[in-house]
Automatic annotation (TrEMBL):
Keywords: Signal. This is Uncharacterized protein. SUPFAM superfamilies: Hypothetical protein YgiW. Residues 1-23 form the signal peptide.
Length: 121
């Protein structure tokens, strides 16, 4: 009887880990990031850069589900809203008090620090 319980427990643990892995493989959207932001989460998104903010490295990105601020630290990037891009980066809480943002996130406090940008043709 103990062997059966151990086997069932191991199967349950395996199932939970496989569910977590499969949920991490799901496509990420701007909307899902803003609904459940996790600082430090690595994300990859496809969409368009639709505007530049006052800082030369800050832009507005949309994937059609919502909009989010992104930061691109590259002197080689020339902004154009007519191109489709794929970005990869890290979710960042832009605040002096990230613990407050974690409790009550707003889209104004969340951005993606882009570490890779690819133009999609």
């Amino acid at each position: 009887m103990l062997k059966i319980k151990v086997i069932l427990a191991l199967l349950a643990i395996n199932f939970l880990f496989s569910m977590k892995a499969s949920s991490q493989d799901q496509a990420t959207t701007v909307s899902s990031i803003l609904d459940n932001p996790v600082e430090g989460q690595e994300v990859t998104l496809q969409g368009k850069i639709i505007g530049q903010q006052s800082d030369k490295t800050d832009y507005i990105f949309t994937d059609g589900t919502d909009q989010i601020a992104i930061e691109i630290q590259s002197d080689d990037f020339n902004y154009s809203s007519d191109i489709d891009v794929q970005i990869s980066g890290v979710v960042d809480f832009e605040s002096q008090h990230p613990e407050e943002v974690a409790r009550d996130p707003t889209s104004e406090n969340i951005q993606i620090n882009v570490n890779q940008l690819q133009i999609i043709k």
